[in-house]
Amino acid sequence: MAEEKWHYNVVSLLSGTERTFSSVAISSLDGRKFGLFLSDIHHDRIVTDDLIKVYNQLSSEGRDFEIVFVSCDSCEETFNMYFSDMPWLAVPFADSDTRERLHDHFGSFTEYYPALLVIYDAAIGMVVNEEGLRAVAKYGVNGYPFTVKRYYELEAAAKKEQSLRSLLVSPSRDYLISNDGSKVAVSDLEGKIVAFYFWFNIPDKDGGPDKLTRVLAEIYRKLKEAGESFEVVLVPLDDNKSSYEQGLASMPWLAIPFEDEGCERLIRYFELWPFHLPTVLVIGADGKIMLENYNRLIDDYGVLAWEAFPFSEEQLDLLPEKARAAQTLESLLVAGDLDYVIGKEGLKVPVKELVGKTILLFFAMNGSIRCQKFLPMLIEAYHKIKRMDSAFEVIYVPMGGMNTDPGAFEFFLRMPWLAVPVGDERIGSLENTLEVGYVNTMVVIGPTGQTITNNAATSLERYGADAYPFSGERIKEVEMAQTLESLLVAGDLDYVIGKEGLKVPVKELVGKTILLFFSARGSGTCRGFLPHLIEEYHKIKRMDSAFEVVNISMDKDQDSFEEFFSGMPWRAAAR
């Protein structure tokens, strides 16, 4: 943090003129501890309510602390609505100069909050914490005076004393509940590894449990059957009791009771703000955090994530290798009742009918120009490969934002192969498991279900259907079989051209060293490079007459090609 932000007279920032806050003079802040609350009406109301509770309690105890609201609202009406519930002071909305000066000085919001509480101690003339909201949310009144020093003192003490009991027991409760409503003492979990499942009840489209819940339940079952000391504790985030009860009824593990204060306390303690939820956090037998994002492993590996137990570094490092060894076409493409891909006119093709075939997964997006341009090439290669091997299939996987793109299905109608349905939950799983980060990615799955390559697009561009089945060995074979004639001869076009229409048979160039110059007149790089290449060409020719350059024009029109080629002393591929 820049030094000028820490050593600064914040009161002077508030004082552009001699004015007051609702008849409270700015000078009344001299020598006091106070916080600048930079926020707007759209900010998370829970945090604002927490701050109000803390402020009121500190005021009732006579502690030295004030808050000044610095509005980020866009209009005075929303400012008045938001400020009406606040028991503290505010910079008047009309004083836009002061508000902008404070916003500019203290910068953008932090990673954790779309708002700031800047804590200032006027007695020493220093900002003592720019993340005061973090301290308030996590430790409440106990965080006072909300300095960085106090925050880290509390952090160190909490980590030192952290245990399953300190996390799960509250003054009013020392038990959890099972799905039949019976109580289970927290002490029964001692010595176990426990996954805290921070959960919203968001049923799938058929009204059943969501995917994370289903997979975690299968992992739980496997670990229990293996006799492992493992438990899951549900931390419910729903505010609807029937939704909570409905969700818990389908789960085999324990839960914190509905609307228990411990749920919110755990969210604050682990700093799991809305964009982190839902999540699965693993706590070791010693009460310390072992794994912060087990849900990510579940996303990446599905049920196989159970093999990460007991979550040691060694086991976590082995998981990718185990996943590759265990991979099958069905493990990739089957998720519960979703055990099929689709064809045209509503046809459903069971995944089991594709087992034993070579499958190319085409990850594409309708809105991608690259995918649109690549499609004809892939269709041509598809038909050629199918004639060579009927046990080959392509499956289109519509990516990312295409789930709501009305053009996605129309894009599929142009394809002669199968597809994963648009919006299907398996799409994200495939992207995670196969580490697909870009559109127009083509992953080839062999007959055994193992990945042959995740870069078939490059092989297809270079070698077309000859690249099949896209293995490293096959690509080497194709490259070894490459000849000058295979590159430059296409049917009757078995020559390159010189000046004045001269045709030079390609066979006359065989045995020479050939430099292929891919160029376009419209490219500034090509135009700038040409004089240098011409100079080097003549030097090399004097050393070795068996050297030649062949221009491969990428110009779209004949005139551009002829104009650029006229300045070159070598041959060009026929157009």
In short:
The chain has 575 residues and is α/β, with parallel strands linked by helices.
Report on this structure:
This protein is an alpha/beta fold and 575 residues long. It is built from 22 helices and 26 strands. A 5-stranded mixed beta sheet has the order 5-4-3-6-7, with helices on one face. The protein has a 5-stranded mixed beta sheet with strand order 12-11-10-13-14, sandwiched between helices. The chain has a 5-stranded mixed beta sheet with strand order 19-18-17-20-21, covered by helices on one side. The protein is extended.
Q: Which features characterize this protein?
A:
575 residues, alpha/beta, 5-stranded mixed sheet, 26 strands, extended, disordered N terminus, oxidoreductase, protein-disulfide reductase, Thioredoxin-like_fold, Nucleoredoxin-like, EC 1.8.1.8
Fold topology:
Blueprint: H1 3-6, H2 10-14, E1 20-21, E2 24-25, E3 33-39, H3 45-60, E4 66-71, H4 76-83, E5 89-90, H5 96-106, E6 116-121, E7 126-129, H6 132-139, H7 148-161, H8 164-168, E8 175-177, E9 183-185, E10 193-199, H9 211-225, E11 230-236, H10 241-249, E12 254-255, H11 261-269, E13 279-283, E14 289-291, H12 294-301, H13 313-326, H14 329-333, E15 340-342, E16 348-350, E17 358-364, H15 369-388, E18 392-398, H16 407-413, E19 418-419, H17 426-433, E20 441-445, E21 451-453, H18 456-463, H19 472-480, H20 484-488, E22 495-497, E23 503-505, E24 513-519, H21 524-543, E25 547-553, H22 558-565, E26 571-573
Parallel strand pairs: 3-4, 4-5, 10-11, 11-12, 17-18, 18-19, 24-25, 25-26
Antiparallel strand pairs: 1-2, 3-6, 6-7, 8-9, 10-13, 13-14, 15-16, 17-20, 20-21, 22-23, 22-26
